[in-house]
Design a protein that fits this description.
306 residues; alpha/beta; Diaminopimelate Epimerase, Chain A, domain 1; 2 domains; 6-stranded mixed beta sheet; 5-stranded parallel beta sheet; 12 helices; binds manganese (II) ion
Length: 306
């Protein structure tokens, strides 16, 4: 496709590591006049010419969509580039000959953020040894010491996602855009500050944690937070159990799902919530309850279909 017609135009991206990485890689080639980070997934207010890592809220959007959330309407008016891989990887594959080589590693933030690290392209692994350097963190609690030992690739999306969770996607975008190496992202003071804020909020949510499990099938964690941490909590809780996890945030009506029933819930509750994501592995779905529906109504319907 002729991407040059999108030079200097407006780009809109999803507010998470995959969306931010998609925007940064597109930006290296297209030099956009503006980059938008809409509050509501798929909202195209501001008339973006390209949407990345986001499915337009309706079929009437006219522009280029580079996305992996699936289930696109038959009557869509937009041009679509899609596949079963992170959106940032779709962007990378589309533009890799045009993206300066010293920025190629930035796709890893999106791929890891989307929980699909093994999709990292071979040429990036070959040329970026720094991704495999480890950072160590030591915690002392009640006199005993714990060491956490993690490669940089594993941590690369964390600070970017935390800035988005704090409502600062522009910060995340600018840090990744101006970074020369993965370590520049890891050591950015503003991103570290966001991570500390998110950690505090996560602890507060855990102290308040009253889960309930419906028919041994879906464990629901109903939170009330000003942070966008549904996905983070769903991933953490899913690591502890094999029921399907559903985290609902009462404050913003967003939800996140992990487990075998991801797509089942998407289909059965399609009239009450916009849900998308990717199958494969554990399943990784998220979305929003529709504005006119209460979360209690959503949960009642869920109980009735399980
Ligand atoms: Mn995303």
């Amino acid at each position: 496709m002729d991407i040059s017609k999108y030079m200097g135009k407006v780009i809109s991206v999803h507010k998470d590591a995959d969306g931010i990485a998609s925007g940064v890689l597109l930006g290296e080639v297209l030099k956009p006049s503006r980059v938008l980070f809409p509050e509501v997934f798929g909202d195209y207010t501001g008339n973006p010419d390209i949407m990345a890592d986001m499915k337009p809220i309706d079929s009437q959007y006219k522009g280029l969509v580079i996305d992996h959330h699936g289930n696109y309407p038959e009557d869509k008016q937009y041009e679509l580039i899609t596949g079963s891989k992170p959106a940032s990887l779709l962007v990378y594959e589309l533009l890799k000959d045009k993206i300066p080589v010293n920025h190629h590693w930035k796709v890893v933030a999106g791929i890891v953020g989307d929980a699909q690290p093994s999709m990292t392209p071979i040429e990036i692994i070959e040329k970026n040894d720094e991704l495999f350097y480890t950072t160590d963190k030591i915690y002392v609690s009640y006199g005993s010491m714990k060491i956490y030992h993690n490669p940089i690739w594993f941590l690369l999306s964390g600070g970017i996602n935390d800035a988005c969770r704090c409502g600062k996607p522009e910060l995340a975008y600018n840090v990744l855009k101006s970074a020369n190496t993965p370590m520049d992202v890891m050591s950015d003071i503003a991103l570290i500050g966001c991570s500390e804020d998110v950690d505090k909020e996560e602890k507060a949510m855990k102290e308040d944690f009253i889960p309930f499990t419906i028919k041994n099938k879906v464990t629901v964690w109903h939170i009330n937070s000003g942070y966008g941490i549904e996905s983070l909590l769903a991933t953490k809780l899913f690591a502890e159990t094999h029921t399907t996890i559903l985290v609902i945030n009462e404050r913003n009506k967003k939800l996140s799902i992990r487990g075998i029933l991801c797509d089942y819930i998407r289909v059965k509750l399609a009239d009450m919530a916009e849900i998308g994501g990717h199958l494969g592995g554990d399943g990784y779905f998220g979305g929003s309850i529709k504005p006119n529906i209460k979360s209690s109504e959503f949960l009642d319907k869920l109980k009735s279909v399980l």
